[in-house]
Amino acid sequence: MEPLSIRLQLAPRQKRGAETGPNPTDRGKKGSKHHLVTDRKGRPLVVLLSAANVHDKKKDLPLFDAILPVRTGRRGRPRNRPKKAHGDKGYDFADIRSGLRARRITPRIAQRGIESSQRLGRHRWVVERTLGWLHNMKRLRMREERRADLHLALLQLGCSVILFRELARRL
Asked: Domain named Transposase IS4-like: which ranges (predicted)?
């Protein structure tokens, strides 16, 4: 399986409801985060939703647990986890690294204070582009749904639209 990239994006929210919390970067307004895992071509594999005040490291390992196995046409048990995972310095925690290693995933995460994030740019732009595609859909850019399950459903529908466009381009 191809290496994956992880990234999240904040979706501001005006109303209250589940999976919202004060956004520390936006004057404490209520907001949500979109956690996203893509393959190296930018195709979304897993998307999760959380409140804006939930730390990234709490949702990182559940993202990798949610990846479904991919049928490759080869015999044997399919590999349902990637070989490598790329992440920025926000994911540089010992428990995340050990959790990825326990799942037999090689962590490629820039270390805080030691390594520059510049080398990750060639992997991160793919996720940023996918988040841009998602946020071009009006209902995902600014969260207006009070219920978290509705917003998550719209987020998954947006990922399905991206995958459909990829398939349509190949045909």
From this structure: 15-158
